[in-house]
Amino acid sequence: MTTISPILLFLCYLFSSLSVGFGVTNADSAVAKVLCDASPTCNSATPPSTSSTTTISDKNDKKLNATRDKFNRDGYIVLKNYFRNNDDPTQEESLVPLLGDDWHDFSLKYWNRIFQVLHEKGHISEPHHVMNDEYNNGKLRHPGYKEIVHRYPGRYELSLNRISDHTKEEDSLLYHDMPLLQPIIDKLEHLILSILKQHPNYQELPDGTKYNLLHSMLISAPHSLIQKFHVDTKHTNEEEHWPAHIINVFIPLVNMTTRVLGPTEVVPRSHVQTRFMYSDNPQTRSQAKPLGSSTVTPLMNVGDVLMFDFRTLHRGLPNVSRNQNRPMLVLAFSIPSFHDKANWPGPSIFE
Ligand SMILES: O=C(O)CCC(=O)C(=O)O
């Protein structure tokens, strides 16, 4: 077993706990050191600059590295006001109106339209969503359709790739109304790539593809149930901890400053332990360490973002409002060689 020098451990801890002003974690710091040891990227944190002058680009690099290291350590990160640039007029415009108005309105329209189509095609008995056994145990039960997957009672994921790639002929109403996505992707790309490029299998494709992107909308309807903690993918290496190969980006389209609409809960640092939990090999599975009980439930406004490793344990809390949907835009970025097929089965609702 490798011996870690105390200086290295201290540096590792120092860099991984740099405050970048985002989110809160109540996880225990002793665990941080152990997991820091487990993370190959933690030990390669950029050393402090010896130069006496700090340029804007140095500052940006430091901020990016600190954000990436925090993500690597905790398996998630909350970026407050990420899509809002009120405090810096030299930056590009705030994307809050695009998210809170355009995408929000579209999410409700899309939701209603999907249930109308489900009804027109004979998949459900009413032309709108209702919480009953038809959904919980019947036709819309997991695994669902290409366009809509019922993740848990009252909780649905609606594919936007499906709209972008196929829906033009099938349903022009859906296709033409989709708001701009590119400014949101552009804003995220630099950070996402800096995380994905750490993966040993990361390789840009000859056609210039830097990542795969699945985009969808996650809607939790009133009276949705609390989910079980789960991961969204297995690890790519069972022998040692590797950096993330696929990242979930949750972008709220309504303010969630209380728990009423059912925010997402994550288990910090669980992305390291889950390596053992979902192995096909029973012997490896038996090595699973007991998971820490501390959890984090970020309360986010439109303009904030939650990013987490697909291997981090998480769940959606119940929407206990009387009649308000909780819509989120979800972007899943993966290394070019990885295609998330498990979460999107068929058939199409149009078939
Ligand atoms: O609704 C949420 O916040 C999380 C949903 C989720 O993890 C899922 O549907 O798999």
From TrEMBL:
Record's keyword terms, sorted: Dioxygenase, Oxidoreductase, Signal
Record's keyword annotation contains Chaperone: no
Keyword Nucleotide-binding assigned: no
InterPro entries hit by this protein: Fungal_Metabolite_Diox, Phytyl_CoA_dOase-like
Organism superkingdom: Eukaryota
Signal peptide: 1-23
GO MF term set: dioxygenase activity
Gene3D superfamilies on file: q2cbj1_9rhob like domain (2.60.120.620)
Protein name: Phytanoyl-CoA dioxygenase (PhyH)
